[in-house]
């Protein structure tokens, strides 16, 4: 790999505030490991000479010249994209990432979030260090992203025009579906899936389900609970209503939580440990790393008492609370979880 090898890139439509700062970017077709010939053409056309992650403003003149060169080099799809996006009133940019370093600009951050939601990169495969410090806290409205300092004036302008500016949320992250809708998914309440979420084909997110950025599902999966940042759910697993998976953004935790395949986390249950394939957590039981539990054999006899973290990686276990003693138990699970194909088909 030479110094000018591009890892990822995207033509984007940027929104700027009154200070001319980029506050968000829409990348309709981001590319991972782009064609070498395409990369060379873009680097030369945009005069990018240093192998540092860069953001280039593409004005009308450059866009026209670039589209012609792309068409001549038989990159017709990209030429058409540049021509179409050039109609966005001077907001066209090209973001090029040579290295997977921590994002230093809004454009870099949004490109990485798009790569995740487009399923081009898996959670934990990209460096997102310092992401919160880079992103702007914005008002997400029916007129797009608005800088909070400019919101009162925009609200007044809307009222004077006989309209209402609807503010759906005030956050650093927009909802994913305003940027990309992956194939083969169902999302009952789109505001509950953030840009940067990875939803595998066959995933259903119900109204109370939530999927944070840099987290998601391999698919198929049923999500009626919370998938916190950094958590990945294996195929054919089911997260019951109101259940929770502990993330690593709060409380200083560093353990990466994951859920294996064919797992079930019951309603209002939760996990603070990774869960191996074929495991079930009983409804209402929150399992933390330090939870003391009795390990029972198939005959119900007590084998040993351990902390929950000591069972990480052990498959086909049922975690439950004894309804008489109140103690937490772990027993071998004879049957694994399976999703209802007809109910969860997203074709």
Describe this structure in words.
The protein starts with 7 loop residues before the first strand and ends with a helix. Strands 9-11-14-17-20-22-26-27-24-25 form a ten-stranded mixed beta sheet, with no helix packed on it. The mean pLDDT is 93. 18% of the residues lie in helices and 27% in strands. It has helices spanning 36-45, 60-72, 76-85, 106-117, 131-134, 151-160, 341-344; strands at residues 8-16, 22-26, 31-32, 54-57, 92-97, 138-141, 144-147, 167-171, 186-187, 198-199, 203-205, 210-211, 216-217, 221-223, 226-227, 232-233, 237-239, 244-245, 258-259, 264-265, 270-271, 280-281, 286-287, 292-296, 302-307, 317-321, 328-332. It is elongated and about 80 Å long. Helix 1 packs antiparallel against helix 2. With 347 residues, it is of the alpha/beta class. The chain has seven helices and 27 strands. Strand 26 (317-321) and strand 27 (328-332) form a beta hairpin. The chain has three domains: 8-130, Alpha-Beta Plaits, CATH 3.30.70; 140-171, Trimeric LpxA-like enzymes (Wheat Germ Agglutinin (Isolectin 2), domain 1, 2-Layer Sandwich), CATH 3.30.60.70; 176-344, Hexapeptide repeat proteins (UDP N-Acetylglucosamine Acyltransferase, domain 1, 3 Solenoid).
**CATH top level label of the largest domain:** Mainly Beta
Output the radius of gyration.
24 Å
Shape: elongated
- Low-confidence stretches are none
CATH fold annotation of the largest domain: UDP N-Acetylglucosamine Acyltransferase, domain 1
- Quote the average pLDDT: 93
Structure summary, number of beta strands = 27
Strand content: 25-35%
Strands ordered across the widest β-sheet: 9-11-14-17-20-22-26-27-24-25
Helical region count? 7
The CATH homologous superfamily of the largest domain is termed Hexapeptide repeat proteins
Straight-line distance between termini: 40 Å
Helicity, as a percent range: 10-25%
Structural class: alpha/beta
Number of separate structural domains: 3
């Amino acid at each position: 790999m030479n110094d000018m090898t591009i890892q990822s890139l995207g033509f984007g439509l940027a929104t700027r505030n009154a200070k001319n700062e980029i506050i968000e970017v829409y990348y309709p077709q981001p590319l991972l490991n782009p064609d070498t010939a395409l990369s060379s053409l873009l680097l030369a056309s945009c005069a990018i000479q240093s192998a540092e992650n860069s953001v280039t403003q593409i004005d009308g003149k450059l866009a026209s010249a670039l589209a012609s060169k792309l068409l001549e080099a038989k990159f017709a799809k990209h030429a058409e994209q540049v021509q179409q996006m050039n109609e966005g009133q001077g907001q066209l940019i090209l973001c090029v990432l040579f290295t997977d370093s921590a994002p230093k600009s809004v454009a870099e951050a949004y490109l990485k979030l798009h790569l995740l939601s487009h399923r081009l990169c898996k959670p934990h495969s990209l460096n997102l260090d310092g992401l919160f410090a880079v992103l702007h806290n914005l008002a997400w409205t029916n007129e797009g992203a608005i800088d909070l300092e400019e919101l009162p004036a925009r609200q007044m302008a809307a009222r004077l025009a006989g309209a209402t500016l609807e503010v759906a949320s005030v956050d650093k992250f927009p909802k994913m579906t305003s940027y990309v809708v992956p194939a083969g998914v169902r999302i009952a309440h789109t505001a509950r899936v953030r840009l940067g979420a990875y939803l595998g084909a066959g995933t259903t997110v119900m109204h109370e389900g939530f999927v944070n950025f840099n987290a998601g599902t391999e698919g198929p999966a049923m999500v009626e609970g919370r998938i916190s940042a950094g958590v990945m759910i294996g195929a054919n697993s089911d997260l019951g209503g109101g259940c929770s998976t502990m993330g690593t953004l709060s409380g200083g935790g560093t353990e990466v939580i994951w859920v294996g395949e064919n797992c079930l986390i019951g309603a209002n249950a939760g996990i603070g440990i990774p869960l191996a394939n074929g495991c079930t957590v009983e409804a209402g039981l929150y399992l933390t790393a330090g939870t003391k539990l009795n390990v029972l054999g198939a005959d119900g006899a007590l084998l040993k008492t351990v902390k929950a973290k000591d069972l990480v990686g052990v498959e086909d276990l049922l975690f439950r609370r004894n309804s008489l003693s109140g103690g937490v138990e772990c027993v071998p699970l004879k049957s694994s979880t399976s999703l209802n194909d007809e109910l969860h088909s997203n074709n």
